[in-house]
Every structure is written in C-alpha cells, then in structure tokens.
Amino acid sequence: MKKIVYFIALLMFVVATSHAQKLNTAEVPVAVKSAFSKTHAKISKVSWSKEDANFEAEFTVNGKETSEVYTATGIFVESEVEMKASELPAAVKMKLKDHKITEAAKITRANGSVIYEAEIKGKDLLFDANGNPVKL
User: Fold this and answer.
1) Last residue of a domain, one of 56, 77, 98
2) Are both 91 and 112 inside the same structural domain?
3) How many other CB atoms are found less than 10 A from the CB of residue 40?
4) Alpha-carbon distance 88 to 92, whole Å?
5) Could you tell me the CA-to-CA distances from 43 to 58, 62, 112, 131 in Å, in that order?
6) Do 73 and 88 share a structural domain?
7) Is residue 53 in some structural domain?
8) Range of the domain at 100
9) Which tens digit of pLDDT belongs to each residue from 63-82?
10) Nearest Cα residue to 79 out of 50, 52, 109
11) What is the pLDDT of residues 88-127, one digit of tens each?
12) The dihedral sign for the CA sequence 28, 32, 37, 40
C-alpha cells in the first residue's frame, strides 16, 4: 500500500512540475523583456512563464488572449492568438465537422508560417490552412 501511495505522490509531482513555471517579471531576462517591449510598448499587464528553455508572455490585445514565446536571448519564436472556432479556415472546420471544438488559436512562427490549433476533447490538434495535420 505504501508503494502505491508513494507512486501516486511521485506522479502528481511530475505532472505538477511538467507544466510551465510562472515567473515574476524580475526573473525574466532583460533581453526577453526588452524584445517584448519593443513590439508591445503599451502592454503593461503581462504574465510570464518558463517553458523548457524559453520564456512565454501572456497578455490581452484587442480583447483576445495572446501569448508570445522568446528564447532566453530575446529571439522571438512564435505567437499564439485565441480565435473563435468559427474563424478557423474552412478546410480546418471541414476536417473537424463532426467534433466539438472547445478552443481555437492561430499560431504564427518567427519565419512567418501559420498553423491553427483546435482543442477537441482536451487535446490540441494542429493544422495548416489547408486542413492538413501538422506535427511539431
């Protein structure tokens, strides 16, 4: 019985620490904050977190939840902007027509490529504008 309790506790610890770590602004490298403020000088309410080696800024623009990811040296990686499921490209909506989409987002990478994220039954699925699945 002790082994089962220990295993469950260990599993809960791993799950809890595998998610992004919330950070105070003071813990974010100056290069990251500088890169963010160059493009978002008027945004003052930002939540920071660390995902692996990168830093993620979460904020609201024009009423839409937005996040941007930067490397520790301040290089922009990608942005993600929430959207209504009805705003997804027609090919993506057609691919998912038999499923309930609970959340949707447009992801723009540093190279300008765009993919779309649709959450279905708690899983995030990624597609290009033509409805083709995308793997990371």
Assistant:
1) 77
2) yes
3) 15
4) 6
5) 10, 11, 23, 33
6) no
7) yes
8) 84-136
9) 999 999 999 999 999 999 99
10) 109
11) 999 999 999 999 999 999 999 999 999 999 999 999 999 9
12) negative
